[in-house]
Every structure is written in C-alpha cells, then in structure tokens.
Design goal:
Blueprint lengths: L4 H12 L6 H7 L7 E6 L2 E5 L5 E6 L2 E5 L7 H8 L8 E3 L5 H4 L2 H6 L4 E4 L2 H16 L3 H12 L5 H21 L8 E3 L2 E6 L2 E6 L11 E4 L4 E3 L20 H13 L6 E3 L8 H23 L4 H5 L15 H13 L2
Parallel strand pairs: 4-5, 5-6, 6-7, 11-12
Antiparallel strand pairs: 1-2, 2-3, 3-4, 8-9, 9-10, 10-11
Helix pairs in contact: 6-8, 7-8, 9-10, 10-12
The chain binds zinc ion.
Length: 338
C-alpha cells in the first residue's frame, strides 16, 4: 500500500530530521517528479521502491554504493534520481542475477560504475546478456512498447513520463555492450567486505536459498540489512529451482541474517515493505510451515495438484498470490526428493 503524501512527508521528517536538512536538500527530497519511491532509512541511506526489487543507496563521504538496480529500461532513470542525492555512484552490488534486480546493469556498465556480484551469478548474468541482446536490437517499435509499460509504473505521473522518455537510452546502452551488458566487473566469494567512505558493508552468501547466488548486505554502522530476495515480506516467495534454489537452504540463510540483527535493525527485503527482523522471522516461519504441510500432504497421499490447492491459514493476506501454487509445488517436489 503506497503511503499518502502526508505519511510520506512525516516519514521523511521523522527519519531524516527536518532541521538537519538544508532547504535545497529538502526540495530535492520532496520533489514531485520521481519515478521511484525514495525512503530515507538511515543517515545517508535511502531505500528505493517500485518497478523491480527494492534497491538501496548508501552514501558516505564521496563514495556511494547502489544495491540492486531495478527492471531493464529504468537504468538511466535510476541513475538520474540517484544523482539528485549524490555526485556519483562509485560502486554497485547485484544481490543475485534476477532481472528485476539487475535491469540497470547495462547503464552501470556503460557509465563505468563497477558492479560486484557473487561468483555464481557471473555465468547467469552472461546468459542474461545473451538472451537480452535480441531485445536490444528489436527496433523502435519494441522500445516504444517498453516505454509505454514503464510510463504507467511511476510513483508520480511526471516520473513515469520522464522514465518512458529515457527508455531508448537504456536500449542504446544495451546495444553498445551486447552480450556483455549484464556481467559484473568483479565477483566475490561467500564472505567479503566493501568500503563505502567511512562505512563497512559486509557481504554474505550462505548457500542455495532463493537462487544459488544470493548475497545479503549488512551495514553495522547504520544497523541496516539488505536481504536481497532472501526475504519476501508478507508475500509468497519465488523459489528459483532452475537456478539451484532450496527452501531448506533458504531457512539457513534466514538464520544467518537473524544472527546479524537486533531489535533496532532496519531490514530492506527484496520485495515488500521495509521492516525489522520480524520480516526475516516471518520468511523463516513461512518455509518451516510450508515444508511441514507439504511433507504431511505427501504422507497423506495427496497428489501435487491437491497439495498446491491447499490453503494455509498462516499465509492469509499474503501478496503475490499468483505465484502461490508454484511455490507450494516447488516445496512439494523438494520434500519428495531424496
Ligand atoms: Zn529474485
């Protein structure tokens, strides 16, 4: 549910402290033409909502890290809106290879912003580039269709218009890079650390979860955690079995993330509302319950079709209802393997 203008302003003032902001900064924060919804979550840190997975911009001194970069076609718009808050993006992170988190990679690569991703993500991002090359060269009609879709997704009407006008630039950047458009500049292993000005950003990959290349990011100095898609907050989660996902592994990732949190940690989930550690507990609980129910369904002799049609009371009101049956089916299959 989007915030009303008044709630949005109140949240801004509460989080950022109105008196601490110069008038020019206030004007930029309250601008009426944004495509994305910008939420301050800590000093020099903004969550960026809408049109893809939740992104996060972290600024310290003259360095800025962008975590995830939305759907394809929106790279130029995202970059432009980031540059209203910082002079340059010095580093980017892909939490995993999915298109709704790496869509801006061609723009970042074309403008010389280094992209970091887990080593397992690299071949998958190379594959994305190979698949997307055909789209880059599909012609103006296809670009116009893409722009029309983008136009309706803006947080403001003016933002939608501006983003639509920038779609051809995203296509041109993709064409310029071809199959290399999405590949990261550098890969990391299971534990690494990035420096952003005075801040340390800890990166962790626990094992297969939502995919085989999930990285979550912890910024202890800001008490902030970006989960990537290891947390769908009160939404049915997508388990990418084709990319090595595992609900059992996902639970282990949740436990590792929970160990990083205290009662005051701000949690940016990959999808859904910004929350605290209860969002991650909810994700863990989801799989714990679902695995039990699917194991029971198998024990009772229920077919896959019967099992995916089950209703689980604890998930009442969860969004992404359209993928519920797929998720249930994937866990049903997982409980039958081995
Ligand atoms: Zn994902």
């Amino acid at each position: 549910m989007p915030l009303t203008r008044r709630e949005f302003t109140a949240a801004m003032l509460g989080a950022a402290g109105a008196s601490a902001l110069a008038p020019a900064a206030l004007a930029r924060l309250f601008d009426d033409d944004v495509f994305f919804e910008w939420r301050p979550v800590a000093d020099g840190a903004w969550a960026i909502l809408g049109a893809g997975g939740n992104a996060l911009l972290i600024k310290s001194r003259d360095e800025t890290l962008l975590i995830d970069c939305k759907n394809f076609g929106l790279g130029p718009t995202l970059l432009e809106e980031c540059l209203r808050r910082t002079d340059a993006i010095t580093l980017a992170l892909n939490t995993h290879h999915h298109g709704d988190h790496v869509g801006g990679n061609p723009t970042l690569n074309a403008t010389g912003v280094p992209i970091v991703a887990h080593a397992n993500a690299e071949p998958r991002l190379a594959q994305t580039g190979a698949q997307m090359s055909a789209l880059f060269t599909a012609g103006q009609e296809r670009e116009a269709q893409w722009a029309d879709q983008v136009r309706g997704q803006g947080h403001t009407d003016a933002g939608g218009e501006r983003a639509a006008a920038l779609v051809p630039e995203a296509f041109a950047q993709g064409r310029g890079l071809g199959e290399r458009a999405f590949v990261p500049s550098r890969t990391v292993g299971d534990a690494d650390e990035l420096r952003v000005g005075d801040l340390t950003v800890q990166l962790r990959h626990i094992g297969p979860g939502h995919t085989d290349n999930d990285v979550y990011a912890v910024i202890p100095q800001l008490n902030l955690l970006h989960t990537g898609d290891l947390c769908f907050h009160r939404l049915h989660p997508f388990i990418d079995m084709g990319a090595g996902a595992s609900s059992a592994g996902w639970i282990e990732s949740c436990d590792a993330m929970l160990a990083e949190c205290d009662a005051d940690t701000t949690v940016i989930p990959g999808h859904g509302e910004i929350g605290d550690r209860s969002a991650i507990r909810g994700q863990r609980e989801y799989f714990s319950i679902l695995r039990d129910r699917m194991a029971e369904a198998r024990a009772e002799g229920l077919s896959r079709d019967e099992a995916v049609a089950l209703t689980i009371d604890e998930f009442e009101g969860y969004g992404f209802e359209r993928i519920k049956e797929r998720t249930f089916g994937d866990v049903y299959d997982e409980m039958g393997a081995g």
